[in-house]
Specification:
- The protein has 18 helices and 28 strands.
- By secondary structure, it is α+β, with helices and mostly antiparallel strands.
- It folds into 4 domains: 12-115, no CATH class; 211-242, no CATH class; 259-525, Alkaline Phosphatase, subunit A (3-Layer(aba) Sandwich), CATH 3.40.720; 566-677, Roll (Nuclear Transport Factor 2, Chain: A).
Length: 681
Amino acid sequence: MGDPPTRSFSWIIKTSSLMCILLSSVYIFLYIGSNISLDFSTQKYKESKITSFSLRAIGDSKEVHQFNSTTNVSSKSYDGFNENNQSAKQGSWKFLVDSENCKIPDLDPFDDKIKDLLILHPEPYKCDDSDFITYIQNDTLFLNLTKKARQHVSYCRFKPIYFNGITGKASEPFIYFIDIEDEFLKVECFDHSGDLVVENFHINFKPKIPKLYEADDRSKFDKGNNKNDTANSTKNNMNSKRHSVADRKMDFAITDRLNIMLIMIDSTSRINSLRYFTNTRRYLTETLGAVELLGYNKLADNTMVNMVPFLTGEFDKNLTCLKSHEGVDNCSFIWQKYSQNGYLTHFGEDMTFAGTFHYTLNGFKEQPTDYYDRPFYYHNEKSSDGVADTCFHGKSSSESLYQRMYDLAYNLRNQRYFSLNIHSRNTHTYLEGLADMDNLTLDTISKLYENNLLNNTFMAIFGDHGLRFGEVRQTFVGQLEERLPMLFLYLPEWFRNKYSDHMTNLKTNTRRLTTHFDMFYTLLDLLNLDKKGPVKRGISLFREIPRDRTCEDAYIDQHWCTCNYHLTVMDNDTVKNTLSNILIEHLNSLLENYDKETKCSNLTLVSVVSSVAVTSKSGQDKGHRIVIKTEPGNGVFESTLRYQSSSGSFQVKGDVSRLSKYGDNSKCVKGKTLRKICFCI
């Protein structure tokens, strides 16, 4: 991406004095900006009453904003982007989280400083379904005869798709319908000359036995069979037994354990959901009574490093299982705990080339869940027009994933299941891509609700982080929203009534600082609400989060923390140059350490985009958040440098954000560190 928009305007200082009986105060509003992309002028003060404010100048630095517990800000932009849009309003709240140790401002999603960077009314992206000429009903694959004639199709065949991506032997040709037994299908249709004219892909629901019960069921079956039974007879009887499982209630169905339905929408912040996810938001809160977590702060940079804490309760850097060249199979994921408790498990993700455990890791060598959709999406990507396309042969990738999720919920309605669904294609690159997810998500969850498929289900709709690059990201609003993903939690009404104390805590936590670690412990809690297990890095959202929780308490690195108190624009060129050189040296040292084959160019500084001093309320945690532009490749990087009193210098101590798009610049390397900073030679 190119340089962020330059802000250049004069200093404005307004002063006035007001005499009271015992106190005189000076009201000062200092508005500063000089070639900075982290634009603090996004907060439009209509009326300010500040009873505790400090103004200081050190060298050429000016303090432009301070949040503290005695600040009372009345701002139109905090009240919502539209006076009639109730979903955007937060009542009299001016901060999403407002405690002594953490104040997260409630910013306007349509602020004037970013409005010109947004597509306010995006055109819906529609897929051409004229090629989608086959469909499945009751284990039978049918041809749509009308579309068949229109596409000049003579006959079709299908091939099963297996876990490792290999396709099986082609079926016999069919012209109307054919019975199927496989879970994933690749359908090829040919014209009268024998030329391939259409490809379709399907997921067919197949009943399975939970691993907890599988061995027991097999042993009972083996005891009841004659030793002389043939292998084919055994196979047929087992298939029959598997089909009966879908209609049988498990022993634990009488307990209060809930199904788990997780819907992760990549790069979706709470603020962006106020722009493009309004119908779903309204339905979640007004019809379903879902709870929104307003202080949900991400823990790390991209999808993998945020989802690992969500799914394992640990940082990726602490897990040796992620460093194996053999894959990530040895990691302990939350779905395994549910599997051990008799749940069937599902993992679906609509972008396999950049999948959560495949983009910088080596993926799974064995199927990780009972239902695993990667083979379906892998073959769709191979045959589509482009890996970034959101349409797969007439259906959007998210539509396919939602249909799969619904089919599982319907067919497993008498069992317990854990379903993880990750939508990336629509939202990973563009803010407005979320608009295409709005009605699609609304239609899916309303259909689930109206068909009583959420009566025994915990549903979370959330983001891993906000959009991580682009022009909006290079503003103050973008910087904040990238760190605050969306999170809605739904629980059925009977559960809310029975566990009212837990729900009280959950509602209290809506305005507390929370993280992906807390979601991990919430999922653990749902397996046994009466038992308090050991807590390492997070707190279940059914337990009250301390009001005075800090980023340090929540294991949020300062670089990602949204509870900042002092934000100071640094205009001192000497300071900026020193900090930028430290960051450049750090990036090149990473290349030297990781790029053993010397595939990447050394980076040089083009310019300092912005430099902001960040200080916690106590003043003990000091840092500088700097954004630089580098060459080759015009990469834009953001990092928080901390002051080390022992050495008297600043060092890069946390992660580094890349604010410009990767493109193909780093395709020559693998690994999360190199992918982020490498410019291939």
